[in-house]
Amino acid sequence: EERERAEKELQAKMAKLKEETEREKLEKERLAAEKAMIEQDMAEASNQTQELLRIQAERAKAEEEKRARVEEEASKRQSEMEALKVQLQQANDEKDAVVKANTPKVPASPEELRADKEKLLSEFEARRKELELHQRVEQDKQERMLQELLEAKKKKRLEKAARASPSPSPSPAK
């Protein structure tokens, strides 16, 4: 649902960008026509004063700057639209991947079923052997630690007993 909402938002943004691009295209055409008119006015005004020519040149420059800004914005909008298209495609790809991942695989034949079963059994057996080995290693380790602990306690008891009885024997018998 969230992806569908995101896709709808992306599509709405793309439609809005398309409308803006169309408006900008019309604005460009209007500006181009207006520029042509300004240039024609300048040619016809060759007999007018130098001040009028300066004002018209400034106006043409302002229109050119505006046209350049409009073109830059149109280019920016086009880039944004392309980025949105890429995002939409990625969202569609992700959706397709999720659908594919969530669609259960149905084996085509009994041979595939047997092969899948054998594969799973061999994986299970390998994992079982690995766990048994790990369990044996841990058990051996614990047994060694227990044996060391028992030997340490026995040694302490013998040392304590040796200190308690003053016998001339150099070491207690095991």
Describe this structure in words.
- The protein is built from three helices and no strands.
- The chain has 174 residues and is an all-alpha fold.
- It folds into two domains: 102 residues; 59 residues.
Could you give the topology of this structure?
Elements: H1 2-44, H2 50-102, H3 110-164
Span between N and C termini?
78 Å
Largest sheet: none
- Count all strands and give the number: 0
The proportion of residues in beta strands is: under 5%
What multimeric state do the chains show? single chain
Return the structural class.
mainly alpha
Region (Disordered): 1-27, 61-115, 150-174
Biased composition (Basic and acidic residues): 61-83
How would you summarize what this structure contains?
Helix content is 87%, strand content 0%. It is mostly helical and 174 residues long.
Name its key features.
single chain, 174 residues, mainly alpha, 2 domains, 87% helix, elongated
